[in-house]
Amino acid sequence: MDAFEFVIALISLVGAFVTLWIFVLYQRKDRKPRSSASNEYSLQELSGMAQSMNERINTLESILDAEIPGWRDKHEQA
Prior knowledge:
By secondary structure, the protein is mainly alpha-helical.
């Protein structure tokens, strides 16, 4: 009978440990910051933003070319 009681106790302890481990695992998943819908962009939206930024940079560079002719030589990055 002693072996039977030992096996029952061992199974109970392992079961409690596994249950606790699963509970802690799911609690960690709940704590992860969830990204809000406003921070998620589709590839098409990002492409549109990049195109808009590229147009603005080209406009600013053309204004600088007209106002300060040698600005590229002074601020050229190697």
